[in-house]
Every structure is written in C-alpha cells, then in structure tokens.
Amino acid sequence: MVRILRAAIFLAIAAALSGCFKSDKSLIGDAEATAPFARIVYSDASGGEKQVLTREGNHYVIKADNGEVGTVRFMAAGKNLYVAEAGGPDRDGKTMFLYALLKIDPAKKTATAYKAIAGKLDTHLPGGLRDCNEGSDQTVCVDSLKAYAGYATAAMTLGAKPDNVWQYETE
Q1: Which residue has the higher pLDDT, 29 or 135?
Q2: Nearest C-alpha neighbor of 166 from the set 37, 43, 47, 53
Q3: Contact in structure between 64 and 3 (CB atoms under 8 Å)
C-alpha cells in the first residue's frame, strides 16, 4: 500500500516518512489533466528501482507487486511546472490523493519535487490549504488545487529545498 503511493507520484515517499499534502478526492479533472506520453519510466536520481507509469486516457496508472493500482494525474502549472496528484489506498483502504509540484528539466530528463512533504514551517497556510491535525506529522489538507499550486510555486521560487529528484524516460 505505501509502496504504490510512494511509487505513484515521484513524491509519495513523503507519506511514508513524514507529513504530506493530501486530499480525500481527486482535484485534477480530465479536462485539466495532461498525459502526453504512453509510458513514463522513472527512478530516483541515485539510480534506484525503476517504476513505470502507463497512460490510460488522461491519466497514468501504476501497479504494485501486490496487484493494487494507483492513479497519477499531471496538471500544467507554468513553464515546465506540473502539479502531480497520486491516488491510491491508504492504510485503512480508503482512497487518498497526494500532491507535489514538479519542475521538469527536459534536457537533463529530471523531475524535481517541491512541497510533497509538509514540514513544521508549513503552518501559515493560505485559504484552500489547512492543517489536517493528524497527530505528530504536519499533514496539510488541500481543498483548492489553485491554492496548493500557488503555495508550492512560491516556496520553490523562494528557495525551498527539493523533496526529491527523479530521472525519467518517456515513450
């Protein structure tokens, strides 16, 4: 279960390690979603295990070894910027959606994730984002994708450290 979310977005490692940006429903509809490639193969920049996203309509799917299927949607948020949304089952079997802002470098074939992991500094949130109050982890509930995209883009622009970097190939 955690594996499918971790693999699904280039970002959900955040869910296994600390707080995250999440919602209980998909915030990227088919009209906003972009899926230009038949497949995306990626791994973390250190050369870890490769994961495969396969296009189905306007989104991608990823299948875990145990048969669980997760969805991944991308929405353009600026030049070479995308909001990534990964949906899959949480520990209780309910569907959860996690978010990250991806900065794509087509020349280097890297995707750098920002604001996939919510931290202790994510306390002064704009409207559309709120503290989920889920125990010791800082978990931010996303009610507005526009608010999330603006918050994550501002953090990146102001020098936030990336949460992760992935190498990718497309078909």
Answers
A1: 29
A2: 43
A3: yes
pLDDT digits (tens, 9 = 90+) for 102-142: 999 999 999 999 999 888 888 789 999 999 877 656 889 99
Compute the distance between CA of residue 18 and CA of residue 26 in angstroms, rounded to an integer: 21
Burial of 128 (0-12, 13-18, 19+ CB in 10 A): middle
- On the CB side of 30, CA atoms within 13 Å amount to 4
Quote the tokens at residue 39: 């497949």
By C-alpha distance, which of 49, 81, 80, 46 is closest to 65? 49
**CA 71 to chain centroid:** 11
pTM score: 0.86
Write the single-letter amino acid at 169: E
Q: Residue-wise over 25-50: b if at least 16 C-beta within 10 A, else e?
A: ebbbeeeebebeeeebebeeeeeeee
The Cα 144–Cα 171 span in angstroms is 32
- Return the beta strands (E) in the chain as ranges: 21-23, 33-34, 39-44, 51-56, 59-63, 69-78, 81-89, 95-105, 110-114, 129-131, 140-142, 164-170
